[in-house]
Design a protein that fits this description.
Layout: H1 2-32, H2 37-57, H3 62-87, H4 91-112, H5 122-127, H6 147-150, H7 155-173, H8 175-183, H9 185-190, H10 195-234, H11 240-268, H12 277-295, H13 297-303
Length: 307
C-alpha cells in the first residue's frame, strides 16, 4: 500500500496542497480589500489567453501560458474601460460582462480546436487533471531519495512548488506594506507606501498563482481556494498573521480530505466509481467555510450586540 500510495496519490495530493496554499495566501488580502471576486475574474480571463498561447506556440510550457494569460488580462482591462465609457455603466457591470464573455470565448476555442491531445480541453480547464498526475517511476518511499525517480516527477509539482515559494517570499518581503495598505490606504500614503503599486502587484501575484494552478487543478479549485479558506480563516481570528496560518491550514486540509474522499468516499458508500478530485476539494472547502460561519469563535464577536 505504501508503494501504491507514493506512485498514485502522493504527487496529486502535494500538487493540490501547493495550489491551495498559493491561492489562499493572496486571497486573504483580496478578501480584506473587498476584492475577493478578483480570483474568480482571473480564472475566467486566463482561459482564452492560455488557449491562444497554445495555438500559437504548440506547447503548454510555463512561459507561453504566462504570456498568454497576461495578454488576456490586458485585453480584459481594455474591454472593461471601453464598455464602461461607451455604455456609461458602472465598473462592476462592465467587469461582469467582460469576464463572462472572455470565459465563453475560451470555452468556444477549446471546443472548436484540437487541444484534447495535450489535456487542454473544457473538462481539464474546469476540473483539472489531478488524478492523472501520478509518479510512475516511484516504487516506494525510497524513491524520494532516488535522483532518477525524482527526475521523473510530474512537472506540475515543480511548477507549483516554485510558485508557492515565490508567493511566500514576496508576502514576507512586502508584509508591512501589504498590511498597512490593506487596512488603511490613507495612512499608508502618508508613510510613502506605493499603494497603487502594491495593489497591482497583489493582482499580478494572484494571476501567477491562478495560471500555475490552472492546468493541474482547473478553475474550480482556483476559484474556491481564493475565497473559501481566507473567508473561513477570517471568522477564526481578528489577527492577520493568524488568519494567514488558518487559511493555509484550511486550504491544505481541504486538498487532502477532498482527494481522499473523491477516491474512497464512493467506495465507502458502496459505489464502484470515484468522483472528480477537484470538485470534491472545492466541496470540502465550501463545507469548511459553512462550518466556520456556524461555529467559528470570531462569528460570535462579530454578531454580538453593540459590537
Amino acid at each position: 500500500m505504501g508503494a501504491e500510495f507514493v506512485q498514485l496519490s502522493l504527487t496529486p495530493i502535494l500538487i493540490g496542497v501547493l495550489a491551495a496554499i498559493s491561492c489562499a495566501i493572496p486571497g486573504n488580502f483580496l478578501l480584506l480589500r473587498k476584492q475577493a471576486l478578483i480570483g474568480d475574474a482571473i480564472s475566467h480571463v486566463v482561459l482564452p489567453g492560455i488557449v491562444v498561447a497554445f495555438l500559437l506556440t504548440g506547447t503548454i510550457s510555463t512561459w507561453p501560458m504566462m504570456l498568454g494569460a497576461a495578454g488576456a488580462a490586458v485585453v480584459a482591462v481594455i474591454m472593461i474601460e471601453a464598455i464602461r465609457r461607451l455604455g456609461r455603466i458602472e465598473t462592476g457591470a462592465a467587469m461582469g460582462v467582460t469576464f463572462t464573455t472572455l470565459f465563453a470565448a475560451g470555452v468556444l476555442l477549446l471546443e472548436q480546436t484540437d487541444t484534447s491531445s495535450v489535456h487542454l480541453d473544457v473538462e481539464h480547464a474546469l476540473y483539472g487533471n489531478l488524478e492523472s498526475l501520478i509518479w510512475l517511476s516511484a516504487e516506494g518511499w525510497n524513491a524520494l531519495l532516488d535522483p532518477a525517480a525524482l527526475a521523473d516527477l510530474p512537472p506540475e509539482l515543480q511548477r507549483m512548488a516554485m510558485v508557492t515559494v515565490i508567493i511566500c517570499v514576496l508576502t514576507a518581503v512586502f508584509w508591512r506594506a501589504l498590511k498597512i495598505s490593506t487596512f488603511d490606504e490613507g495612512y499608508a500614503r502618508t508613510l510613502g507606501v506605493p499603494v497603487k503599486a502594491i495593489g497591482f502587484g497583489l493582482v499580478i501575484v494572484s494571476a501567477v498563482a491562478a495560471v500555475a494552478a490552472f492546468d493541474a487543478v482547473g478553475s474550480i479549485i482556483v476559484i474556491a481556494m481564493f475565497i473559501c479558506p481566507p473567508a473561513a480563516a477570517r471568522l477564526m481570528t481578528n489577527r492577520l498573521e493568524r488568519q494567514i496560518l488558518w487559511s493555509i491550514a484550511f486550504g491544505a486540509g481541504s486538498a487532502v480530505a477532498g482527494y481522499v474522499l473523491a477516491g474512497y468516499g464512493p467506495l465507502w458508500l458502496g459505489s464502484s466509481n470515484a468522483v472528480s478530485a477537484a470538485g470534491m476539494i472545492a466541496t470540502v472547502s465550501g463545507l469548511v467555510l459553512a462550518l466556520a460561519c456556524l461555529y467559528a469563535p470570531a462569528r460570535s464577536r462579530m454578531t454580538a450586540p453593540g459590537s
